[in-house]
């Protein structure tokens, strides 16, 4: 919300999650400097009820350069539209591995509180990822 991201403009809050811990780790590694990677990162598992709706964006419906860096306005516009339509969950391809998916959550949705926190545990990263080897 403070800075915006690939799928949300500055000022609109969105919770970025991934389908797996390994993808979440890659997403974190590319977005944080190596000095911040050993600052007590935690894995927070969420339990998303199957009864709740998930909207899906596939890479074929996105602009050719959707996964470029810096982010392009088109992806931010898609995410802003999702939030403004007050949808709960948007499944999007990962910019790092487009055959895997991230799930974007709208914390202001009326059913957001149905998503429950599961296991919480520290993430221990290999020293080669943190640059401290």
Polypeptide structure, described:
The chain has 133 residues and is an alpha+beta fold. The protein has one domain. The chain is built from three helices and six strands; from the N terminus they run E-H-E-E-H-E-E-E-H. It has helices at residues 21-31, 73-84, 127-130; strands at residues 15-18, 42-47, 55-56, 89-93, 101-105, 116-122. A four-stranded mixed β-sheet has the order 1-5-4-3. A two-stranded antiparallel sheet has the order 2-6.
Summarize it.
Strand 4 (89-93) and strand 5 form a beta hairpin. The N and C termini lie far apart (34 Å).
User: Spatial order of the strands in the main sheet?
Assistant: 1-5-4-3
- The class by helix and strand makeup works out as alpha+beta
Estimate the global geometry from the Cα principal axes.
globular
Regions with little confidence, pLDDT below 50 for 5+ residues: none
What value does the average pLDDT take?
A: 92
Question: Ends: how far apart?
Answer: 34 Å
Radius of gyration: 15 Å
Write down how many β-strands occur, each being a DSSP E stretch of 2 or more residues.
Answer: 6
Taking the sheet with the most strands, its summary is: 4 strands, mixed
β content, as a range? 15-25%
How large is the count of helical segments?
3
Tally of structural domains: 1
Helix content: 10-25%
N-to-C SSE series? Answer: EHEEHEEEH
